[in-house]
Each structure stands twice: as C-alpha cells, then as structure tokens.
Amino acid sequence: MGLYFHHPASLLHDTGPHPENAGRIRAIEAVLEDAGWPGLERAEPPRAEREWLTRVHGAALVDAIEELCAAGGGAIDFDTVVVEASWEASLRAAGAAAEGARLLLEGAHGFVFCGLRPPGHHAESNRAMGFCLFNNAAVGAAHALAACGAERVLILDWDVHHGNGTAEIFDRRADVLYVSIHQSPLYPGTGAAGDFGSGPGDGMTLNLPVPPGAGGEEFRGMIEHVVAPAARSWRPDLLIISAGYDAHAGDPLANCVVEDHDYAAMTAAMRELGSEIGAPILVCLEGGYDPAALARSVLITVEELVGGPPPPSVSAVPVVADAVARVSAHERWRSAF
User: Fold this and answer.
1) CA 54 and chain centroid, separation
2) 88-108: burial string, b at 16+ Cβ within 10 Å, e else
3) 88-99: per-residue pLDDT in tens?
4) Known catalytic membership, residue 261
5) Residue of 122, 143, 162, 182 with catalytic role
6) CA-CA distance, 256 to 252, in Å (whole number)?
7) Distance between CA atoms of 207 and 267, rounded to whole angstroms?
C-alpha cells in the first residue's frame, strides 16, 4: 500500500487569480476519489519542526515567512504570495516530505505521495520564489540523511522548470544526487547542462535540459539512459521525485508535449529502478497548471507506483545521447555508463 498525505491547510493557502491555486488540489483529489483512492491510505502529515526547515534554509528566511504570514500576508516577489494560512500550509507540505522519508526508510509503506501545496523546488536556502516557500523535497532529503539512517538520496525533478532551489541547496553536498529534466530556455533560467555542482558536490548535480517541444521520448529517455545508470552505480537509499506535471502537452506555462502515457512510463521506470536497488519512492507535488491534465497525471503516477508491467525501452534520441555523453565523461560517472 501507498500513503497519500493531504491537509486542509493546502486549500487555505489563497493565492488569488494565480496558476498555483487551491483548485489544483481539489482537481487531484476529485479524480482520486472517483478512482477509489487506488492502493492508498490517507493521512495528515505533521507540521515541519523548525530544525527540519533550518537544515536546508537559513533561520532568517524561516522567520521572515512566519512573520509575513502572521501579519496577514503579502507578496514575496512578483509571483509568490502568502496569506495568514500559508504558514500552516507550508509547514504541512514540508512536514509531509520529512515524515514520508521517515516512514519509507522504516519500511512502513511501499511509497508516499505528498499531495500538498505550496510546491517547493524553486525555494533556495535563503530565498522563497517561484510559487515556493520552503523546499519540500530538500527538507525530506535532509531529514532522511540526518535523522532516518539514509546515507545517499537521489532527487529526480521532472517538473518542466529547473529546480534552482534544490540545486542551490545541495550544490556542494556529496550525499544528494540531484537530477533535473527541464525545458530550456524557460524560467528560472538556471540548470545549464555544464553545471555539475561544486566542491565536494562536483558531479552530484545532473542537469538534463530539453528544448521546447520535447515530449515522452526525451523525458523517458533521460530516465532510462541517464538516471537509471547513475542510480544503479551510486545506490541511493531513497528516491525522491519532485513531480511537476507542467511538461504535459496541455499545460499553459511551458512548451513541452509529455502525454499521460509518458508519465505512466516515467513512473513505472522509477518504480522498477527503486525495486531493483532497494530504494523506496517519495513523491512531492511540484507544478502542473492545467487542472484536468494534472489530476489525470497524478492518478496515473499513483496507479503505476502501486504496480504494473515494466515500461517499454526507448531509444536515446539526440538530446538524450548528448546528455549520456556529457555525464559519462565526468570523472564521477565514468564507470556508471
């Protein structure tokens, strides 16, 4: 059985006429309800403790968000806003990732899906931005490493936008492998193919940009031909998916053309990889701004995590072949490919 984390606070984080709004969660949960919550138990997550947040964020950022929410809210930047209830929502979203990591590493569930908002992957160590307050996936990874016995965590970010926050937070760390498949050029303008991390983390950031118009062949190919070989070599204890669904062909905020069946194959590939290397899967909801496409894609993700046949192999199209050549040339990964 899998576990689905949800909380009413996600609906009270009122962003107004904004693409990242409470309707996203309502659409997801309506589709899951209609499907009978397949293979899922449901629970409310704990509030993230301050220590969980300050493993990846500066204390000043945590204090600033709390104070802004307590004062009634306001704009953090041109597209990131909070209201009073956003503090509780952000604590529950981050708490779900941390608690999910703990439960998975204790063997309590087959997988955990965190169906909460606000999303997180744009939130940097000292900056909230891009609809994101705290970096939920980063909080989960850091908690797994600091408190749950994990030694290595892999984060696969398949949101169409580069997760600049996750990359920045783990830039110099050797115990987190951050892999991002993202459209380029596109907001936030980070995620260059030649950025592999720095210092002790050199080689532990794998940016896999794809051009506008990329679809299933590119996204699935990156997982099969880059993510899987790296994971088999490195053997992480936990797989985290920063699951944005804004690369979908129906999404209004980007230009990729991933379809429902591609998300099914991407999820199945990660399920099979996790089974092979003995690493459970934690899913943190990121973007996805066409409610119907988002809801279908989440249902498909859940159904594939519950089980199914392995996905068919895909050939390495040119952008994937280029990524394989680039990554395999890095000293850290030469023996993996």
Assistant:
1) 19
2) bbbbbbbbbbbbbbbbbbeee
3) 999 999 999 999
4) no
5) 122
6) 10
7) 19
